[in-house]
Amino acid sequence: MVMADTLPDEKTPRTAIVADGVNVHYGTKQALFDVDLDIKQHQVTALIGPSGCGKSTFLRCINRMNDVIDGCSVEGRILLDGDDIYDRSVDVVQLRARIGMVFQKPNPFPKSIFDNVAYGPRIHGIAEKKADLEEIVHDSLVRAGLWGEVSDRLNEPGTGLSGGQQQRLCIARAIAVRPDVILMDEPCSALDPIATARIEELIDDLRENYTIVIVTHSMQQAARVSQRTAFFHLGNLVEFGSTDAIFTAPKDPRTESYITGRIG
Amino acid sequence: MTDAPMNGQPGEVRRGLSRTDTMETVRKGLRRRYAAERRFKWYGRIAIAIALGFLVVLVGSILFRGASVITQTHILLSVELPMDAFSVDGEVTDESLQRADFGGIVKQALRDRFPDVSKRRDRRTLYQLISTGATYELRDHVVADPSLIGQTIDIWLTASDDIDMLDKGYIDRNVDSTGRRVSDQQIAWYDALIADGRLERHFNTTFFTSGDSREPEQAGIWGAALGSFYTLMVTLLLAFPLGVTTAVYLEEFAPKNKWTDLIEVNINNLAAVPSIIFGLLGLAVFLNVIGLPRSAPLAGGVVLALMTLPTIIIAGRAALKAVPPSIREAALGVGASRLQTVTHHVLPLAMPGMLTGSIIGMAQALGETAPLLMIGMVAFIVDLPGGPLDPATVLPVQVYIWADSPERAFVERTSAGIIVLLLFLVVMNLSAVMLRKRFERRW
Ligand SMILES: Nc1ncnc2c1ncn2[C@@H]1O[C@H](COP(=O)(O)OP(=O)(O)O)[C@@H](O)[C@H]1O
Ligand SMILES: [Mg+2]
Fold first, then answer.
1. Which residues pair with A26 in a beta bridge?
2. Which helix (H) or strand (E) holds A75?
3. Which residues of A touch B336 (CB under 8 A)?
4. Which CATH code is given to the segment(s) B222-439?
5. Phi and psi angles of residue B223, each rounded to the nearest 5 degrees, phi first
6. Helix (H, G, I), strand (E, B) or coil at B283
7. A3-109+180-259 CATH
8. What number is the ipTM of this complex?
C-alpha cells in the first residue's frame, strides 16, 4: 500500500477523511481488506478498479450506508475531521447530513422537482420559513447547473426529467443539505456522453466548496475529474496517489495492467 | 437452394446450410410460430368468454329472481275507526290507543268488504289475505294522526305473502287447489279486489328498511346490511392498522433471522387456516374469556379481523417489496431516519398495493359465515342493530336463513339479498379504486 501524503502541485490541503484499517464483511465473505486511505478537503478523489473489487463498499462505509445491509460488518476506523464516524456517540442521521451521496442510477423521489430538493432541508429543519426554503432550492439547483432548465417547472415530477437532468437533480438534492462531503457511486454510468460531460464539469465546479469522492469504472473519467486516485483490486487498496502519478507512472504491476486494459 | 460460395472463396462448395437455406427454414418456422400465437390468443378469448358467460348467467338469474322484490302487493281497505274502540270513558289517551284492538278492526274491515262470508273457517281464510303486519301498519297510521278516530278511512295495507305471490304470477291457479297455497275462495276474493281496483303493487319499503321476520312480506334486508356494515367497520379498524404496521415492521425494520422466518411461515400458514377455526377461537377467547357480547358485530368484527390480517400482511409485504430500493437509499442518503424513509416515501408508494390487499381481505370477510356461526351471529334477529354492541346478523347469513325457509316469497328475498350483498362488494371495490387513484396521482 502506497500513501501519497505530499503532492507536488498542491499546497498541502487539509485532510477531511481518514480511513484506518477498514475491513468489511458481508456475512462470512470479506469484501475489503485493511484499507488505509486519506481524503483531502476540496479535492476529487477517484476510486477505480475492476467490478466487484469493493469500491462501492468502501464508499458506503464513509456515510454508513452499510449499516442498513443485513449481515454487513465494518471494522476499523473512519475519521471525519478527526472524529470516528463509527463511534457510538455519532448519530447516523446527522452524519448523512454532512456526507451527501449520489447513486449509480438517478433516483429522484416520485415527487415534484421542488420537493425533491426541499426534502433534506425540511426533515433537518434547516429552513423554517418558506422563503428560506425557496432560496435553498434555488441555490442548490443553480449549483447543480439545473436551474436554467427547470426554473419554470418546479412543480412537475422529478421523474419526468431526462437521465442526466435527474442525476443533476439528485446532486442538487444532496447539496441542499449543505454537506461537507459528496460521495458519488458511478454517477455517469447510466448517462449518455453529453450528459456525462456536463456532470464532469459540474464535479469540477463543486470541488471548490465540497470534498468529493467518486467511484468510476472509466479511467478516462478518473483522469479528467480527479486530483487523486485510489486503485482497488479484490478488496485491497493496491495503489493510491496523485492521479497524474497513477496514470503516468503506476508503481504496482496490477495497477499498470488495469490502466492498460489487461484486467477489468 | 444455392450452393454458391458465400464468402468469396472460389471453388469452395459449402456443406450444410447456406444463408438462403437458413432464411427459408426461419420463414417456414415463422408461420408455425405465428399460428401458435394466434391459437393462444383464441384460447384466451374463449376462456374469457366462458367466464363472462357464467357470470352473466349467474347474475342474470339472480336478478331475474330477485327483481320482483322491488314491489309488494297492497290491499286498499275501508276501515271504520269507531270512537269507542280507542277510548276509555270517552277519552283517547296514549294508553287507550296502545290497548285498542287494531287486529280486530282490520278483520272487521275485511268482513265489511266481503259481507257474505259467515262461516268461521271461511273467515279465517279471508283474514289470510292480509299480512299479520297490517295490524301494526294501521296502528302506526292512527297513532300518527289520532284525529282520524271516529271516521271511516281508506288505507293501503300489506297483503299476505301468498296473495303477493299470486299477484306476481308465481302461483299457478290452474293447479288443483289442494296443491297450492291459495284456495279457490281466496282467488275469487283476489279477483274481486282487482276488479275494484283495490289491489295494487307498491314500492316495497319494508324490504329495504326492516330486519328479519318469520313472515316473508315483513322481512327486510336492512338489519343484516347494518350488521354487515358494523362488523366490517370493526374488522377494518382493527385489521388495517395492525396489518400495515406488521407488514412495515417485518419488511423494513425486523432483522432477517430464524425468528422472523418463523413468524413469516406462521403468517402464511394462518392465511390458509379454515375460517371456522377462527370462529372457535372467537368463541373460546373473545366470548368466554374476554366476555364480548354474543351475536354482536364487535365480536364478529374481531374474529373476521383475525382472519383478514394474514391477507393484509402478505399483500402489504408484497407491496413494500415492490418499492424500488433506490428510493430508500435516496431518502437515507439525504439523512432521513428509517422511520421517515418509510412514512415519507415507501409507504405512500406501497399504499395502492396495500389497499388492494385489504379490499380482497374485506371482501372475503364480507362473504364469510362459518366463523360467525360459532359466536352466535347466525341467528334470527328481528330488531335493527343500533351499534356494534347490539345483536345482529350479516348479509350472507341472512341469505342463508332465507334460502332455508320454505315460503315461496323467501325465494325472491334470497335472490334480492344476494343482490344487496353484491352491491356492497361493488361499493367497497369502487371506494378502493378511488382511494388507489388518489394515492397514485402523487406519482
Ligand atoms: N449487499 C451485499 N451483500 C453481500 N455481498 C455484497 C453486497 N454488496 C456487495 N457485495 C460483495 O462485495 C464485493 C464488493 O462489492 P462492491 O463494493 O459492490 O464492488 P464494486 O462497487 O467495486 O463493483 C463483491 O464481491 C460483492 O459481491
Ligand atoms: Mg459498485
1. A29, A72
2. strand A72-80
3. 93, 119, 123
4. 1.10.3720.10
5. -60, -45
6. helix
7. 3.40.50.300
8. 0.89
Question: How do the domains of chain B map onto residue ranges?
Answer: 3-67, 70-217, 222-439
Q: What is the pLDDT along chain B (443 residues), one digit of tens a residue?
A: 444 444 444 445 555 667 788 888 888 888 888 999 999 999 999 999 999 999 999 999 999 988 888 999 999 999 888 888 887 777 778 788 888 888 899 999 999 889 888 888 888 889 989 998 888 899 888 888 888 888 888 999 999 998 999 998 888 888 887 878 888 888 999 999 999 889 999 999 989 998 888 888 889 999 999 999 999 999 999 999 999 999 999 999 988 889 989 999 999 998 888 989 998 988 998 888 888 888 899 999 999 999 999 999 999 999 999 999 999 999 999 999 999 999 999 999 999 889 988 998 999 899 988 888 888 888 888 888 888 888 899 999 999 999 998 888 899 999 999 999 999 999 988 988 888 888 775 55
Protein residue whose Cα sits closest to atom 21 of ligand 1: A56
Q: Which of B326, B344, B443 sits opposite A107 (nearest CB)?
A: B326
First to last CA, chain B: 57
Domain residue ranges in chain A: 3-109+180-259
- Whether the full predicted model's pTM is greater than 0.95, yes or no, is no
Residues of A in contact with B443 (CB under 8 A): 110-111, 157, 159
User: For residues B75 and B73, what is the distance between their CA atoms, to the nearest angstrom?
Assistant: 7
What are the grid coordinates assigned to B344, written together? 415519507
Grid coordinates belonging to A11:
499546497
Closest-CA residue, ligand 1 atom 5, reads A26
Which SS3 state, helix, strand or coil, does residue A197 take?
helix
